[in-house]
Amino acid sequence: MTDRLLPIGLLFVSNIFMTFAWYGHLKFKNAPILLVILISWGIALVEYCFAVPANRLGSAVYSAAQLKGMQEVITLTVFAAFSVLYLGQRITLNHLIGFALIAAGAFFLFRTQH
């Protein structure tokens, strides 16, 4: 069971860091862009320390396509929470529909073929 859950947990942690690296600076639009890039790089380095092991460990039980599909759903979940809680933006019905369509695509990656 841990073989299946640990990669998912690591991907969640990884995505939290990457979401901050990519979008956290939007609250600090007056910061110099070079400083923002350097800070984002540092955060992304920490993100890689979770993402690489997640994919390495996950490849023992999931296909690469399944890992990528999982990554996308986790990314959208983390981003939606981040957008609301950190950036103070609301999630609209159109956002939810778009996210659901991506999640539906991921569903088919895990569906067994008969």
Order of helices and strands: HHHH
Strand content: under 5%
How far is the N terminus from the C terminus?
25 Å
Instruction: Describe the sheet with the most strands.
Output: none
- Rg to the nearest angstrom? 16 Å
What is the average of the pLDDT values? 93
Q: Total number of helical segments?
A: 4
Low-confidence stretches: none
Q: Structural class of the helix and strand makeup?
A: mainly alpha
Shape: flat
Helix fraction?
over 70%
The tally of beta strands, per DSSP, is 0
Q: Could you describe the 3D structure shown?
A:
There is one protein chain. This protein is mostly helical and 114 residues long. Helices cover 77% and strands 0% of the residues. It contains 4 helices and no strands. It has helices at 2-23, 33-58, 64-85, 93-110. Helix 1 (2-23) runs antiparallel to helix 2 (33-58), helix 1 (2-23) crosses helix 3 and helix 3 (64-85) runs antiparallel to helix 4 (93-110). The protein is flat and about 50 Å long. The two termini are 25 Å apart. The model has no long low-confidence stretch (mean pLDDT 93).
